Amino acid sequence: MQRTRQDAVEGLLPDERAQRILERLRTQGRVLASELAVELNTSEHTVRRHLRDLADAGHCKRVYGGALLTSPADQPAATRMRESVERKASLAELAVSIVRPGQVILLDAGTTNVAIAAALPDNANLTVVTSSPQACVQLMDRPGFDVMLIGGRVGRQVGGSMGATALLQVQQLKADLCFLGACALDPVEGIAAFDAEDAELKRAMIKASGLVAIAMTSEKLMTSAPFIVAPATEIDYLIVEADLSADRLAGLQRVCDTVLVAAS
Fold it and tell me: What's the CA gap between 59 and 54, in Å, rounded?
C-alpha cells in the first residue's frame, strides 16, 4: 500500500525532521515554529529543540517565534571577490542608475560595492568617499572622480577600513548618497553585519548620508548576522536580483522605499 504524505511525516526520524527544517530555512529564510509543528505533525517544543540545535551548529539564528537563516557572507573579502562576479556586475549596472552628477557618494566596503565603483561611468563629476581600498583602485585613475579613501585599520573579513579613525572621518562627512554594504537583510530583523566595528561604521554612514542604497545578492536576503546595523526602513533604494520570489519581494517592498530588480 502506498504511504500517504501524512504517514511519511509521522514516520520521520529526528535527524530527518531536522533536515526538513534546515531545507525549509534555506528555501524561505525565515521559519515559524508553530507552522513547522503543524507541517511535521509534531510539537512546537520539538521544533524549538531542532531550531536550537541548528542555531548551535551555526545554521540559523533564533528569533521570536522561530528562526532566521544565517547569512553565507561570513567569508574573507578576498574569497567573496571571486564569487558571483557576473551577478554583482548586473546589480552594479542598475545601482549606478540612481547616481546623479555632482553628488558626494559614500561607498562602503563590500564586493558588490567594488563592482559599483567599476560600473560608474567616466566623467561622472562625482566625489567618492570610500572605506574600500579595492573600490579606490577602480576609480583613482579615471576622469571625473575626486576620490577620498577613509583611513584606519583594514579588516580582512570586511575588506575595508574600520575602527576609531574610520569612524571619526565618516562622522565628519555629509554625503548625498551612500551605497551601504550589508552582510544580511531581513524585513523584520533589519540590516546586519558580522563584525561589531563594521556595524558601528555602517550606522555612522547611514547618519552621514541623505539617501541610503543597498545592492545585494539573493542569498543574503532574509538572513541574519550577529550585529544589527539599522532597521530595513532606513533603506531608500534596495537593488535585488530577478530570481527573488514574489513573497520575498513583497516583504521587502513593504519596508524599503524603492526596490529595483536587476535584469536576470
Answer: 5
> Do strands 184-186 and 190-193 pair parallel, antiparallel, or not at all (unpaired)?
antiparallel
Residue 9 has pLDDT above 70, yes or no: no
Domain that holds residue 36: 5-70
Domain co-membership, 29 together with 65: yes
pLDDT digits (tens, 9 = 90+) for 17-31: 888 998 888 877 788
Mark whether 157 and 249 lie in a shared domain: yes
Counting the structural domains of the chain, the total is 2
- By the 8 A CB rule, do 109 and 132 touch? yes
pLDDT at 73 over 90: no
Helices (H), 143-211: 164-171, 196-207
Average pLDDT, integer, range 215-228 = 93
User: What's the pTM?
Assistant: 0.85
CATH at residue 31: 1.10.10.10
β 153-155/160-162 pair status = antiparallel
- Grid-cell match 561622472, residue found: 124
Give residue-wise pLDDT tens across range 116-150.
999 999 999 999 999 999 999 999 999 999 999 99
The helix/strand/coil state of 37 is: helix
> At which residue does the C-alpha cell 563629476 appear?
125
Indicate whether 88 and 216 sit together in one domain. yes
Cβ-proximal residues to 125 (8 Å cutoff; 6+ apart), any chain = 101, 102, 144
Residue 34: φ, ψ to 5°: -65, -40
Backbone angles phi, psi at 214, to 5 degrees: -135, 130
